[in-house]
Every structure is written in structure tokens, then in C-alpha cells.
């Protein structure tokens, strides 16, 4: 009994070390989504600009688009925003999901920084965010013309991320090749 008690801490240490060792090769931004390959969740929420105008998942169908989760309280959204403006200028359709934010602050934010969004879904309670499995902002979803989520990115979409994660799939779905950061 005494010998077992002596080896128990060593066994726990070895077990924990193995768990940590095999977990270190994981990409912390690679957060799989159960919704990839599934239809965008059903919702009925107001737009940011007009609280009387309601939009639903049906408004996301008919064209390939990005759904970008953002908020004024999100520092990384400030970094990402110029890239979204550039993509929108190149014809990428982007729908904003203003997440757990204040309506007036969000409107002012877009006025000051530019508005890359075709429209903004106002999710002040976070209900759609919960249905999407949002970890925080920013998050971006590539949605095909049938309203099916094809890719999800947690974190900033910059030139490197666009090129490595979105560009080929976007081109496959649309036949277009927008880029961030000028010519290749």
C-alpha cells in the first residue's frame, strides 16, 4: 500500500505530461464547428440600421457571402475592419452580425470606419451567436448560395488568412478571386 502511494504522483505526472505533449501540436485558432456543412441557423432579428426591419436566414441565400461577427467592444475587429472594407470594394458580399453591442455605438463605429456590410444583423442578446456557437468576435463564416456554412474562422481575417483559408473556396463557389492587399 505504501509503495503504491509513492508511485501515484509519478503516474499522474506522466499522464498529465502526455496529455499536454499531444495537445501542443494543435492550432489554437482551429476551432471546429459542427455547423460547417450545415444550413445557417434559423433566426429572425432586426437590422442594425432599422430596428423595425427584420431579416432571417432566407436573406442569406441566393449568393455566396461572408457573415462577419463583430462588435465595437472587440479590439481585433478594429484590426480586421480595413481588410473587410477592401474585400467589399472588390465585390465580396459581407453581412455583419453585430454581436452583444449597443446600437448607437455600432452605427457610429461604421460611420467612422466605413461600412463593408450589405446589411447588419443586430444580435444584442446574442441569440444567433449562441446558435452559431460563437466564441467571441471576430468570427467569419463563408456561406454558399444555398445558405450552407462552408467555412468558419475564429479571429481576424487578414491577407494571410484570406489567402490560406478563404480564397480557394470562395473562388470555387463564385468563380471570382478577390485579394486583400493589392495585386499579387
Give me some keywords for this one.
single chain; 184 residues; Glutaredoxin; five-stranded mixed beta sheet; two-stranded antiparallel ribbon
Walkthrough of the structure:
The chain is an alpha/beta fold and 184 residues long. It has one domain (31-174): Glutaredoxin. The protein contains 5 helices and 7 strands; from the N terminus they run αβββαβαβαββα. The longest helix is centred in the first third of the chain and has 22 residues, at 2-23. The radius of gyration is 20 Å and the shape is elongated. 27% of the residues are buried.
* Low-pLDDT windows of residues: none
Which CATH-level-2 architecture? 3-Layer(aba) Sandwich
State the helical fraction: 25-40%
Number of helices: 5
Task: Give the overall average pLDDT.
Answer: 90
For the sheet with most strands, the description reads: 5 strands, mixed
Percent of sequence in beta strands: 15-25%
CATH C-level class is: Alpha Beta
